[in-house]
Amino acid sequence: GDIHLHVVNLSAHGFMATGAGELGRGERIVVRLPVIGRIEAHLIWSTDDKAGFQFERIIRLDDFMKIIEQLQENPRLRRIR
């Protein structure tokens, strides 16, 4: 089924999120990201309120920058082309 996570930190290797309380270490999930679509990640570590996930593969730098551009709400912080 679907679970809703709040991603608080994103990198080309993985992400940190809140709201993963019911997941255990080693569990795999599929997340949907802008630009690249669906990608599998597995839970590496968790605390009471945060969890760290590693992507199945590293996101290419050019795709990662496109993701950040789409997720950046403040237009002043967007990269100038």
Provide a quick synopsis of the model.
The chain is mainly beta and about 80 residues long. The chain has 1 helix and 5 strands; from the N terminus they run βββββα. Strands 1-2-5-4-3 form a 5-stranded antiparallel sheet, with no helix packed on it.
Keywords:
mainly beta, 1 helix, 14% helix
Describe the protein.
With 81 residues, this protein is mainly beta. The protein is built from 1 helix and 5 strands, in the order βββββα. It has one helix spanning 61-71; strands at 6-10, 14-18, 28-33, 37-46, 51-55. It has a 5-stranded antiparallel beta sheet with strand order 1-2-5-4-3, with no helix packed on it. A hairpin with a 3-residue loop joins strand 1 and strand 2 (14-18). The model has no long low-confidence stretch (mean pLDDT 89).
Write the layout of secondary structure elements.
Elements: E1 6-10, E2 14-18, E3 28-33, E4 37-46, E5 51-55, H1 61-71
Antiparallel strand pairs: 1-2, 2-5, 3-4, 4-5
- Strand residues, percent: 35-45%
Query: Going across the major beta sheet, what is the strand order?
Result: 1-2-5-4-3
Shape: globular
In total, how many beta strands? Answer: 5
CA-CA gap between termini: 39 Å
Q: Helical element count?
A: 1
Average of per-residue pLDDT values: 89
Major sheet size, sense and barrel closure: 5 strands, antiparallel
Uncertain regions spanning at least 5 consecutive residues:
none
Helix content: 10-25%
Rounded radius of gyration (Å): 13 Å
Q: Structural class of the secondary structure composition?
A: mainly beta
What is the ordering of alpha helices and beta strands? EEEEEH
